[in-house]
Amino acid sequence: MSYEGVPMKESGEEKRTSGDGFVISRTKAIVLVVIVILLIIFVGVMSGVLSARKARKDALAEMTTEKPVRATGQGPTSEVKPTEEPTGPEPWYQIRLPQNIRPIHYDLYLNPSLEKNTFDGKVSVLVEVTKESEYMSYMLIHINDMNVTSAKVHKRDPNAEPHAAAPGEEIPSETFEYPKNEYFVFELKKDLEAGGQYVLVMDYKSTFSSQLNGLYISTYTNEKGEQRTKSRMSDDEFQLKLEEDGEDEKKEQEFVITRSKAIGLVVFVIVLIIFFAVISGVFSARRARIEALDENQSSKGGKAPGKRPAPTEEPGVTAGTEVSTSTAAPTNASTNASGPISNATAVTPSQPVKPWKNIRLPQNIRPVHYSVYLDPYLELNTFKGNVSVLINVTEKSDVMSYILIHINDMNVTHAKVYKRDSNVTSNTTSLGEEIFSKTFEYSENDYFVFELEKDLEVGGHYVLLMSYKSTFSSQLNGLYISTYTNEKGEQRRLATTKFEPTDARKALPCFDEPAMKATFSTVIVHEKDYRALSNMPVVKQQQLANGRIESHFMKSVPMSTYLLAFIVCDFKFTNATTGQHKNITLRVWTTPAQVNQTKFALDVGNGIITYYEEYYNLGYPLPKQDMIAIPDFSSGAMENWGLITYRETALLFNEGVSSEANKQRVAVVVSHELAHQWFGNIVSPKWWNDLWLNEGFASFVEYLGVNHTHPDWEMMEQFLLSDLQRVFPLDALASSHPISVEVDHPKKIKQLFDRISYSKGASIIRMLEGFVGKEKFKEGLSYYLRKYAYKNAETQDLWNALGEKANMDVKTIMDTWTLQMGFPVVTITRIGSTDKAKATQKHFLLDPNTNVTVTSQFNYKWHVPLTYVFQDASQDPKTKWMNISSDSVEFTWPKNKWIKGNFKQVGYYRVHYDDDNWQALVQQLENDHTVFTTEDRSSLIDDAFNLARAGYLKYDIALGTLNYLGKETKYVPWKTALNSLGFLEHILSDRPANGNFQRLIRSKVKALADQLGWENKQDDNHIKRYLRSAILGAACSAGDSDCIENATQIFKEWKSGKRSEIDVDLRTLVYYYGISNTGEEEWNWLYEKFLNTTEASEKSKLMYALAASRETWILNTYLGYSLDSSKIRSQDAVSVISYVAYNPVGKYLAWTFVQNNWKALFDMFSTSTFRLTSLTNSVTQFSTEADLEQMKAFFDRSEAGTSENARKQAIERTQANIEWLKKYEEIITTWLKNNVGS
Q1: DSSP 235
Q2: 1123: CB partners within 8 A, 6+ apart
Q3: Which positions are catalytic residues (predicted)?
């Protein structure tokens, strides 16, 4: 049938004729809309691709040709940085912000004016400087299309609430814009401080964005037909509404579209397509431009081999997958940054907890047990390992979804977390349910972070399972390679470790803080011809399919990570059974050719272990004690529990080759390290601010140990020389520091390994033993060790234990000695003509005019146990306590009698008197010096010269204390006298008075030098040999012609073969002056001997002598050798430079060398605990304004690393020397002319 249309109404309806319109069904309409949408998407994608390609091309082109600088939006505080080629390291040329500054909090005030199309605002940004960088004088912040009207930088108000952007002191700065990278730059007048917090305060104006990004205007029409405006910060949805025909009764409704509506619809679709094409192009182009710039930036400054990745915005990868590198920490960027600003007020989101930003580990997790599998490949210079760590969640915290563990310079290839099976009761790392997590590294604080999908449970036990790879450390810390040459001339390699304080993380993932004690089960893989050593004995070995051996070690006692040790070597050993119950195996290891040099250390160790068990009243807890000599070792020794590592010169003694000084060094270092096995290992410090608890006690007890095994060595008297009198000048500087000081960063921790922690620590412990009594002291130590065994303690825990046993408030007394720097000078004067004395105290400074900027809670007052003796009772000391609340104390002083304070110099203070009493003491020395103890004679000389140096005492009195020396036969007073003259010898070395000063020294030592002679006698004891070396050394140094001629002649006879050997105790002297008074031929000959000598103590003597040349070109050559490990071992480089600096000819050569080669030296020793400090001290012995200014300039332009404190001390010491010359040079010159002048 044919189709006929239904008749239509003619009124009120449009006719559907071909000329006026057309009709389509609903289905067709939907199809049409879909086609339009697909067309829009297609055009948008193509536009984006083409725009992105062009934008990428343009961006890459801009990398070589800068665009003109945008000139709009510049406010009164910001100038546009001129367009220029980026030739320097300026940070604004980089597309990425400097990574040393991190924002913490924003305070934002926003004031938009919608009708004016403008807004203004103010922002205060709290930032933290997280680390040192080359950009410490700049701050960069992003801006775009705004006018900054005010911009200032302030230090954060220290009294403000945490995380408050509260400005304090203003930091002067200049500002400018660099529009190309959208930077606003603060150029500061002084550098930022690492760890410091600052506040940026900025006012600005701008107009709303003309595009649909940033802060822009959107409009709509309300119900009244009014156009309304609102500010937006996100895209609005775009909606298209179609009107439907009203014929609801039809199954498929029809749309009537007139010609005019059709044309309008087509136009609308075309406009819509163009709109989406443009938007797509803009965003694609912008993204392509950023990617191109980022790629270029990466190609310029990409990741160096072995370094961890730079931070990205992705938090990590799912644990359980194999990862070649870990991703970096999440940034502060929000995952949902879009949304309108409500009521024109910025809303500050709550800051997520980020425990990896804290230098300290979270305290809610404690390691219980480690299972360590270490597989080193010595020839490939690589190692790999697995570690399973059982941890216990001890308490609730705000970081329950994170686990942090330390790593440094290693590639973690596998990382998982498991909840341990609740049925397991032993401390094993058995696995249970896997806890899914993401992982990332935060390299700034050496963290590997597990971000867990569900929170940890309090009381729960978890297991971390990690696999990793790394290369051996290039420095002498962590896990590193040492080498030696065997008897066949072959170079042999060994793997060894040094972890204290924070380098265990270089060998295995671990909780690397001293309080994080745990037990360890270790397996080490090695070649068949090698041995593996660790803290505990080997319990089994098994051969692998590849022929290598697995050595399994006994489970350890709970211990801190810094005490771990792993060694793979082909060494030999001697052994003994030791201890009160003969239940400890003692072994001394070294290279096979030197095993005959281990007997002395074995004998000393045997005697001292037994003595310490008795002294501490606590048995040694391990079944074995190994002591091993490492050919390359940065410090003297390291007290790893059960496996002590030593420098060769500190463990090996070769009878007939090594000197008495070598013998005493071995005994002292062995005693020191064995003392640590109790004090430091059984009980360890909670944190490194109490490092002195380890080192101070060991540095005191070492004397007790050696005094027990060698009572004829006068060790308790020698304490004055080696520790007390050596630390006094350092602690008399305003740049000193307290024994106990708060530290966090590893660099700051390593600075604590200085003479203050060791020698001052030992000195105040010696003083403490003096006033509580030896027996009560021992009881207190034993009580402390038993109470905190296998745990951690703080200084106050020790004070409380000692105070309990001594029935004394030890803590109140000792806090004044540990919590403030310095020490007092106690001045004793007679009250009129009475029989009463008054004693006062004052902070002693070498330069009394120095401004002490560090405040003290005790106002630099001390609780002083003042001891004193009188003329008729010089061996019967009395004690009077001085406290911090009164200015003076009074006590009886018999008339017409002299008084001597600080009996045996047991107290850590100096004593001064009026001139009459000083004259009486000097006269007593001349009349009968034996009235005083050996220590008191030494202390009188030491106090007198240092009081004169500081301006308290006339120099004629100080020099008068030396008048009696012709009668002195004891080593300690003589050595104190020579050390005291050493300051004058140094500061006058290039002054007119030097000639007369050398005559003074020669006159003092000549008679005794002739008496002692150049040959040791059969019955000469240890201490007499020490005295001979000191006196002959002083005579030669002062230019005594007989002394120099004898030394040079013996050297020539030895070189020519006429003399087969030189007395072992005089070799250092003969070698030194033999080189000093000969030329190139002799130097080359001795250098060959140095290269070919394997005996460590002999090598040390030769190395010292080679620095004695008077030829500058030879000294410069020798300095250059210090940077070549094939010529000078890196462990000895600082010693070589220091020896050259001690030579008057080499003083400035060494200083220039250090300045010119600081980067290389810094790279070698930046992680060492001692080296940079020692180097800085040795090359900065200056006393002129020119030297001071040059030194300051060098310090300003070079990184300090662990020598920061040493640099401050060098500046202050030099300033004090300059002031001394102004005050006393003329006085000393006149005295010398009148008393010894020719």
Answers
A1: P
A2: 1133, 1157, 1160, 1161, 1164
A3: 673
CB atoms within 10 A of CB 813: 22
**Distant-in-sequence, close-in-space partners of 1197: CB < 8 Å, separation ≥ 6:** none
List, in sequence order, every residue forming a beta bridge with 406; answer none if it has no partner.
447, 510
Whole-angstrom distance, CA of residue 368 vs CA of residue 516: 9
Name the token pair of 1232.
Answer: 């010398």
**Do the bridges between strand 173-178 and strand 79-80 make them parallel or antiparallel, or are there none, so unpaired?**
parallel
- Rounded Cα distance, 295 and 816, in Å: 58
Q: And the tokens for 103? A: 């924002």
Q: How far is CA 419 from the centre of its chain?
A: 35
Nearest by Cα to 771 from 806, 795, 719: 806
Q: Kindly report whether the peptide bond that precedes residue 592 is cis, defined as omega within 30 degrees of 0.
A: no
Question: Annotated binding residue at 769?
Answer: no
Q: Which residues, given as ranges, of the chain have pLDDT below 50? A: 1-23, 49, 52-53, 55-88, 232-258, 282-350
Cα separation, 791 vs 44, in Å, equals 68
1162-1185 burial, b at 16+ Cβ within 10 Å, e below that, comes to: bebbbbbbbbbbbbbbbbbbbbee
> Could you give the C-alpha distances from 11 to 8, 14, 15, 256, in angstroms and in order?
9, 8, 10, 16
pTM for the whole thing? 0.73
Is 105 known as a binding-site position? Answer: no
Q: What is the pLDDT of residue 748?
A: 78
Q: Binding site annotation covers 695?
A: yes
Question: What is the phi-psi region of residue 316: left when phi exceeds 0, alpha when psi lies from -120 to 50, beta otherwise?
Answer: left
User: In angstroms, how far apart are the furthest CA atoms of the chain?
Assistant: 153
Q: Which tokens go with 172?
A: 């002067």
Tokens of 162: 């945490």
- The token pair at 1184 is 């002129």
CA pair distance 545, 568, nearest whole angstrom: 20
* pLDDT at residue 134, rounded to an integer: 84
Q: Cα torsion at 521, 527, 529, 530 (round to 10°)? A: -40
Distance between CA atoms of 47 and 1121, rounded to whole angstroms? 65
**Which tokens in the block code for residue 743?**
């530290």
pLDDT in tens, 280-296: 554 444 444 434 434 44
Query: H or E segment at 1218?
Result: helix 1204-1235
**Span 131-147, pLDDT tens digits:** 888 888 999 999 998 99
Query: Which residues contact residue 374 at a Cβ distance below 8 angstroms, ignoring those fewer than 6 apart?
Result: 383, 385, 507, 508, 522, 523, 524, 525, 566
User: Taking a C-beta distance cutoff of 8 angstroms, is the pair 21, 14 a contact?
Assistant: yes
Instruction: Name the 3-class secondary structure at 1067.
Output: helix
- Joined together, the tokens standing for residue 107 give 């305070």
**Amino acid identity for residue 507 in this structure:** A
Contact, 594 vs 652, CB < 8 A? Answer: yes
SS in 3 state form for 840-891?
Answer: EEEECCCCCCCCCCCCCCCCCCCCEEEEEEECCEEEEEEEEEECCCCCEEEE
Strands 21-25 and 254-258, bridge-based pairing: antiparallel
Q: Which position has the token pair 């040390």?
A: 1100
Rounded-to-integer distance, Cα 490 and Cα 475, Å: 23
- Amino acid at the residue 172: P
Cα–Cα dist 391/366, whole Å: 5
Tens digits of residue pLDDT in 1140-1164: 999 999 999 999 999 999 999 998 8
Token duo for residue 339: 């949304």
Residue type present at position 606: N
Rg, C-alpha atoms of the chain = 39
Q: Is 947 helix (H, G, I), strand (E, B) or coil?
A: helix
Instruction: State the Cα angle at 554 between 588 and 386, rounded to 5°.
Output: 105
* Bridge partners, residue 638, by sequence: 645
**Amino acid identity, position 1226:** E
Query: In 3-state terms, the chain is what percent helix, strand and coil (to 5)?
Result: 40, 25, 35
The helix (H) or strand (E) run that includes residue 484 is: strand 478-485
Residues linked to residue 414 through DSSP beta bridges, in sequence order: 467
The 10 Å Cβ neighbour count of residue 898 is 22
Q: For residue 129, which of 148, 105, 149, 103 has the smallest C-alpha distance?
A: 103
